[in-house]
Design brief:
Blueprint lengths: L1 E8 L6 H15 L3 E8 L1 H6 L5 E3 L3 H4 L5 E8 L5 H9 L1 E7 L10 E5 L12 E5 L25 E5 L9 H11 L4 E5 L12 E3 L4 H10 L2 E5 L3 H8 L3 E5 L5 H10 L3 E5 L5 H11 L3 H14 L4 H16 L2
Parallel strand pairs: 1-2, 1-4, 2-3, 4-5, 5-6, 6-7, 8-9, 8-11, 9-10, 11-12, 12-13
Length: 322
């Protein structure tokens, strides 16, 4: 059986959709299925999907002409119209939509809404799967052991403002960390090749999932945008401070706050953001504070969401698709 993934990603919109859909691709291949992609993306997206079979379509959700496919579809898009989603539903054996914001009333299929917090009543044609246990993570994050060792002093800080850092927050975050932990090692992950270190930090480009997991496991704390990376941080049990950098992160962020999983510093345009970030990283100084957050994080996310969906499709797929 073929898996067709419809999604989008570029330096402006970020690459989070490509990252989480790659987890589904890996889980599907474990079951010896084929994978193809239909993507609206730029050169950064092409680099992220090297080696994949990709049909590159500018604004695929408007241009693509649907035909019947004996395949399962996964749709991860913030812009696809309801008529396009209906066409995908009508022309595939099964379809799964990824939803972060309750943005549409979905047609027949499954909706994966992996934000933490309470499930709610949704009246549409789909069946909803709720909570962080369904979040697709790449294979490097599938079997992370519980974090047990916590350094007495914070010496390694990881900064992740989204691969593209659309708000240009990394320099400010570096200075905030330097103000509180002046001799700490700071590691920055970014996709933009034009980023230059501002205070002696180490800069990492185009990390593999294995390299990212290793960096998270070796760090003491992190400062992160409140996007898809939060689930990888949670799987690794890395205590982190979150910054809201886009409106589509708000539902997810509200859920994390509800469950007490992360420290929250504020929105990207808050005039007191630096001050709040510094306050949050100070609160993580003690071993006890980091240990408590880490435990809650790994209780929320076990990394197995992609495999869980594949098992659900195999056992229940015929029951929910019309």
């Amino acid at each position: 059986m073929l898996l067709r993934i419809y999604t989008e990603g570029d330096l402006q919109r970020g690459l989070g959709h490509l990252t989480r859909c790659s987890a589904y691709a890996a889980a599907w291949r474990q079951r010896e299925g084929g994978v193809c992609w239909v993507v609206d993306g730029d050169e950064a997206a092409r680099n992220a999907l090297l080696g994949e079979s990709v049909d590159w379509r500018k604004a695929w959700q408007e241009e693509i002409v649907m035909q019947r496919h004996d395949a399962v579809a996964i749709v991860d898009s913030y812009t696809a119209t309801l008529s396009v989603l209906q066409s995908i539903s009508d022309n595939h054996r099964q379809v799964v939509y990824l939803d972060d914001t309750f943005r549409l009333s979905y047609p027949a299929g499954l909706v994966v809404h992996s934000a933490p917090g309470k499930a709610r009543q949704v009246n549409d044609g789909a069946q909803w799967l709720w909570g962080p246990a369904w979040q697709p993570l790449r294979p490097a994050f599938w079997n992370i052991p519980l974090r047990k060792d916590f350094a007495p002093e914070i010496s390694r800080v990881l900064i992740l403002m989204g691969g593209t850092d659309v708000r240009n927050l990394i320099p400010a975050m570096v200075f905030a960390v330097r103000s509180v932990y002046p001799v700490s090692e700071i590691n920055v992950v970014v996709a933009r090749k034009d980023y230059n270190p501002v205070a002696g930090e180490y800069v990492h480009y185009e990390l593999s999932a294995e390299q990212m997991a290793k960096l998270m496991l070796q760090s003491d704390i992190a400062i992160s945008a409140a996007g898809q990376t939060t689930y990888e941080l949670a799987a690794c049990g890395l205590p982190a401070v979150l910054v809201l950098v886009a409106d589509n992160q708000r539902t997810q962020l509200d859920g994390w706050q509800e469950t007490g999983t992360f420290k929250y510093a504020g929105e990207w345009n808050d005039v007191r953001l630096m001050e709040k970030v510094m306050c949050c990283v100070r609160e993580l100084r003690t071993v006890e504070s980091r240990m408590q957050l880490s435990m809650v994080m790994q209780q929320q996310v076990d990394g197995g969401g992609a495999v869980l969906l594949m098992e659900y499709l195999a056992n229940n797929g015929d029951a929910w698709h019309i």
